[in-house]
Design brief:
191 residues; elongated
Length: 191
């Protein structure tokens, strides 16, 4: 059933729509445009009817028969439905539909901008948090070096850090590192 609907409901009309475009026959254009409008409405309605009417006997076969009726050059189903129902309804409601589409377009643009800003804010917050965590790890790593180690890296091992200079330490350590390294420095020079 799916393949027959695919072939007869979509591919066959698509090919003949192509032929109408190629031949530039206005009458064929109009015929196939009416078909595609009706088919779009049918597909939309089918989304809901499939949920509620799939239990109905011969439901799928009736859908195939309906598509064949729409396509038939003898019944001209799509032209009949379009001229009797769709065109008059769309003509009378065209202004309201256009207004709704403009409002929906504006709302969707506003929503897109709003969610875009929120997404950028979330990304920026995540980047700042990652950077602060990375900075914290770097500062902890730097704090793990004693002042004596830093002075030997500079190549100035004879100078020791005065005891009045203090370096911030984490909450885990209560004694400033500079005081400890200064006392270590004097203890090592006494050896």
């Amino acid at each position: 059933l799916f393949f027959s609907r695919l072939i007869f409901g979509t591919l066959y009309p698509a090919y003949y729509s192509y032929k109408a475009v190629k031949s530039k026959d206005i009458k064929e254009y109009v015929k196939w445009m009416m078909y595609w409008i009706i088919f779009a409405l049918f597909t939309t309605a089918e989304t809901f009817t499939d949920i509620f009417l799939c239990w109905f006997p011969f439901y799928y076969e009736l859908k195939i028969a309906f598509v064949a009726w729409l396509l038939s050059p003898y019944t001209k189903g799509s032209s009949l439905l379009y001229r009797k129902f769709v065109h008059p309804t769309l003509s009378s409601k065209e202004k309201e539909i256009d207004d709704c589409l403009v409002q929906a377009k504006d709302r969707s643009y506003d929503a897109l901008v709003h969610f875009g800003k929120r997404g950028l804010n979330v990304a920026a917050t995540a980047a700042v948090m990652a950077a602060s965590k990375g900075q914290g790890a770097l500062s902890e790593r730097l704090r793990s070096f004693s002042m004596q180690d830093l002075s030997t890296i500079r190549g100035d091992s004879s100078n020791t850090v005065p005891p009045s200079v203090t370096v911030r330490t984490s909450s885990k350590q209560s004694q400033p590192k500079t005081s400890r390294s200064a006392s270590e420095g004097t203890g090592s020079s006494g050896k």
